[in-house]
Amino acid sequence: MDEVHKDKPLKDRIPNQSHDLVIWLDVTDEPKTTYVDALTEQVQAFGNGKDPVSVVGIGGGSSMDIAKAVSLLLTNPGGAVKYQGWDLIQTRPFTTSASQPFPVPVPKRLAPRF
Asked: What is the pLDDT of residues 42-72, one digit of tens each?
């Protein structure tokens, strides 16, 4: 989640549990592959060898890009630099097959209230 939300009401509306990991992202600059790799390692360490059920990005474009990149690295070998370019992903993340992703409903209580 973009760290801009860290001290804002949205933080308290995330229904995270003890088995959930919330990472506050610094997106001041364009995300680097080394940052994505470090975040992926943090998620892997938290899971003790188990992949997460899902990865959710909250924030602007960079936050979403980071969430997508981390989810791809959790299911593909090597670091982020290996996947810069088109059609380089070997295994799609969190899917029932290569073309059918799991549906992920968003609870209404998480809908933004601006």
From this structure: 999 999 888 888 899 998 889 999 999 999 9
- Tell me how many degrees the CA angle 26-48-57 measures, rounded to the nearest 5: 30
Q: Which fold has domain 3-94?
A: Rossmann fold (3.40.50)
A 10 A CB-CB count for 4 gives: 16
With 0.85 as the threshold, say if the pTM is over it.
no
* Domain-wise residue ranges, the chain: 3-94
Q: How far apart are CA 79 and CA 49, in angstroms?
A: 17
Distance, CA of 38 to CA of 44 (rounded, Å): 10
CA distance 11 to 66: 19
Confidence of residue 21 (pLDDT cuts 50, 70, 90): very high
pLDDT at 106 over 70: no
Q: How far apart are the first and last CA of the chain?
A: 18
* Angle formed at CA 45 by CA 93 and CA 105, multiple of 5 degrees: 40
